[in-house]
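Internal tracking record. Fields below are filled automatically when a chain is submitted to the structure queue. Please do not edit lines marked as system-generated. If the sequence contains nonstandard residues, flag them in the REMARKS field before resubmitting.
Queue: standard
Priority: normal
Entity type: single polypeptide chain
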Amino acid sequence: MSSDAASRSTLKEAVATCLSNDSLHLIVLPTEACNFRCTYCYEDFRAARMRPGTVRGIKTLLARRAPGLRRLTISWFGGEPLLALDLIEDVMTRVRELTRSNPEMCVASDATTNGYLLTRPVAERLIDLGVTRYQISFDPPRERHDRLRVRKAGGATFDRIWRNLLALRASTRDFRITIRIHVDRKNAAFIDPFLDDCAAAFGSDTRFEIFIRTLARLGGANDPDLDVLDSTDERPVLEQLRAGARSRGLHTLQLPPPGSPCYAARANSYVVRADGRLNKCTVSLEHPNNQVGRILADGTVDVDSAKMGLWIRGLTTGIPAELECPMKGCADPPARPRRTSVLTALSAPLDHVEGGVRGAPKTGESRSPSASVESDFR
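SYSTEM-GENERATED OUTPUT FOLLOWS
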């Protein structure tokens, strides 16, 4: 089989998975509040703790769908999801019960967290409930991280997060932690020393992996002042840093091949907001096209088929850009004019540390989801 034929076959299989009724992916926001105020964040934190009716709706929906599922994935997002630890434990306890009564259902669960509250006791409780994968972001070096990823009440965050990771290294539990490293024009030259620290702390532990990504403008108030890498510089910088991570013996997260469907392009993946709204993407949360439905307390859902069609258009067109990021051309973050802001001061170089070193596709024709797509979530 030629490489082109193999690629087409792989894409066909991926599309079939995205449409399958025996797979369900829920990205759950148990709270949209956060204990951080990262300077590049795009969220507004207006919706706080998940409503009891929404929690009941999720558990009821899962109980109804479980007998027909072969794979269930629950991703915890926020805000900061660990601010609602009890809700995560509540839902995951129910999922464990459903797994026992539906042994053919394979369950995976992960959390995107700032890591500040991820102490070893908290992590081990969640791991025992099935939440075994975590993504935690850093903006090296330490001094810069503490200015960009600041607590809501003020104060540094790096050292406590790092201590939490070191404590987890001593755990005997089976888990995977992805250390996500943000790179921009100001800190690119200072990533290598942080990789040295990671190698010394976690290089021999396969439960820890490195994921190096460029900082991006995703609709936050400070977008105009972010020192993102130019498109021409992004690839060589990332390739060099990722190669450096591997040369240090660090395990690196492997990116999916080009054209792989984003979760938002999948017909069987939804974001469940704290107030019961259903989105497709965790970016541009308030964009009208990103409001595709609602989950009710009895576990039923209302889905706007026309809006769903915008997000899953790539499954019909096969256009790689529409599969990789259906948000582009559908629910783009607002473009903000450049202006002087608090970030200018917050991101100014530290003389003793810094020396200054997610094209949008056009929207395709809107297509309503097929009947099989609609029945997948219901």
